[in-house]
Design brief:
By secondary structure, this protein is of the alpha/beta class. It has 17 helices and 18 strands. The chain folds into two domains: 275 residues, Aldolase class I (TIM Barrel); 117 residues, Double Stranded RNA Binding Domain, CATH 3.30.160. Bound molecules: 3-methyl-2-oxobutanoic acid and zinc ion (ZN).
């Protein structure tokens, strides 16, 4: 059986999704989980784009030991130097450099002649040759590039030192049969292609990213670039969990294996969802709430007789064991902090103390605390260090014969501000009070409530997407009180805006 390498780009392409920016601390926590998941390569970021990106790449490179750590660079020395400086501490480092090769990108985006594009690509790879353990080259918008041109540029960058050739379907345009032929043609027409691994990187604009990745693999690609939950630019990238399980469940056809520990898939997906405040759609394959639930009587009857009547894989195989009750209000700090560690979080003593206070508050209101609750608490603690605004107090009056009014006290930089506002309902009143207290007028675009665990006392999770100056920021909050969860989610989204704009000055151009 052949093995393919899984290259995870959640922290780079994934983070380019609207509202998916992460703090440095969240990124390192997530990278360590990707390492436990068994991904072969972690693309840590685009270091030249901001000091924040640089710092995250460096910390990931210094801490991840079992996965290759990659950094993205345009085909220019300044970008390559930034990747080099940030990945110096990596056990195995990889430069991922790219330049657009499709006629439309060369003419209108790069404004470069095709020959100059080849020159720049070769110059970049030659410059990087002795600086990294591995060099990956991507002809951006590859699937809309002319094959003859690709053969030439690929041959030249391999001669210059590229060890991986990634063919991006940048705009999610290709079809499964087409990418099969495309990759086959590259294999058959680039004379030195045996000196490099071919990789596939599919976007999901037509919902074909995973199908296209599988076709590319069938044609000989031996690396697939994907993201957890399929997050990424526009409609996203191919979802790692879907690709891995498709290859796994249909080994009879694909004869392909990966190094992924599939039992870590569900947890990894939940962790990402908690970190970026983006709920997983219920019907999402592998990780959605409905993926293993059987509603109709006929299906349930079949399942009782034999699970395989309606299940092609077990929930356990992707780490979806039923939630165990693990802690209650009498659990001490020690038991709590052990469980947080077992779930994969490395919190400082100070963070554990804060998380424990949140846990006690929750345990007071809710008798049974599940792993999902702990995940939610620990996930939000990780974002707290970059907290600009803190919701200190809130109060709401509402009723069918009263004007809903919200009052909040927000702490910011050792100061605090109290504001009140009325609204159409209690949630709009509280959000408007927060707008006044922070002096940041945000427009609410999405609002979702879900129960993290079952039962009347369930911890409710609210996630919001707000629009500030045309940019989108996600936030989440959890509490047994939905109004409190809503207020926390809104403040969390505003903090994400502050983090992105004030701290980072991000400038992702890829
Ligand atoms: O989609 C794309 O083309 C990319 C490249 C930078 C590989 O993400
Ligand atoms: Zn991409």
């Amino acid at each position: 059986m052949d093995k393919i390498q899984i290259f995870d780009t959640t922290l780079r392409d994934g983070e380019q999704a609207p509202g998916a920016s992460m703090t440095v601390e969240q990124k390192i926590e997530f990278a360590l989980q990707l390492e436990r998941l068994g991904v072969d390569v972690i693309e840590a970021g685009f270091p030249v784009s901001s000091p924040h990106q640089f710092k995250a790449c460096k910390i990931i490179a210094d801490n991840v030991k079992n996965s290759v750590v990659a950094g993205l660079a345009r085909a220019v020395e300044k970008d390559i130097d930034a990747v080099y400086e940030s990945l110096k501490g990596a056990e195995t480092s990889r430069l991922h450099t790219f330049i657009a090769t499709s006629p439309i990108h060369m003419k209108y985006k790069l404004k470069m002649e095709p020959e100059t594009v080849i020159e720049n690509a070769v110059k970049a790879v030659s410059y990087a040759r002795n600086k990294f353990d591995q060099i990956e080259f991507s002809p951006e918008d590859g699937t809309r590039s002319e094959l003859e041109f690709l053969y030439r540029i690929i041959e030249k960058v391999i001669d210059a030192g590229a060890t991986v050739i990634n063919i991006p379907d940048t705009v999610g345009y290709t079809m499964p049969d087409e990418i099969f032929d495309f990759i086959s043609s590259i294999r058959n027409n680039v004379p030195n292609i045996d000196k490099a691994i071919i990789s596939t990187h599919c976007h999901n604009d037509l919902g074909l990213a995973v199908a296209n990745s599988i076709s590319a693999i069938k044609a000989g690609a031996r690396q697939a670039e994907v993201t957890i939950n399929g997050i990424g630019e526009r409609a996203g990238n191919g979802a790692l969990e879907e690709l891995v399980m498709a290859l796994n469940v249909r080994k009879d056809i694909t004869n392909i294996d990966t190094n992924i520990d599939t039992k870590q898939l569900y947890y990894t997906s939940k962790l990402l969802s908690a970190i970026i405040a983006s709920p997983i759609p219920r019907n999402k394959p592998i990780v959605g709430a409905n993926a293993f639930s059987h509603e109709s009587g006929i299906h349930q009857h079949g399942m009782i007789s034999n699970r395989e009547t309606y299940e092609i894989m077990t929930p356990e195989s992707v780490g979806r064991d039923s939630s165990e009750i693990i802690l209650g209000r009498h659990s001490g700090l020690h038991g709590f902090s052990n469980r947080v560690k077992e779930l994969g979080f490395n919190l400082t003593d100070e963070q554990i103390k804060t998380a424990f206070e949140d846990f006690l508050k929750l345990a007071d209101r809710k008798k049974e605390v599940f792993d999902e609750d702990i995940l939610s608490i620990a996930g939000s603690i990780l974002g707290k260090d970059s907290c600009f605004y803190d919701l200190d107090y809130f109060h709401i009056t509402s009723g069918n014969a009263a004007i809903p009014t919200g009052t909040v006290r927000i702490k910011y930089d050792e100061q605090q501000k109290e504001e009140a506002a009325t609204g159409d309902g209690p949630i709009s009143a509280i959000f408007q009070a927060i707008d006044k207290a922070t002096n940041i007028p945000a427009k609410l675009e999405e609002f979702n409530v879900s129960a993290i665990t079952a039962g009347k006392q369930a911890l409710g999770e609210v996630s919001v997407i707000i629009n500030i100056n045309g940019e989108h920021y996600g936030g989440n909050g959890s509490s047994t009180d939905i109004l409190e969860a809503s207020a926390r989610a809104y403040v969390n989204a505003i903090n994400r805006y502050k983090l992105t704009t004030e701290l980072t000055g991000d400038n992702n151009e890829s």
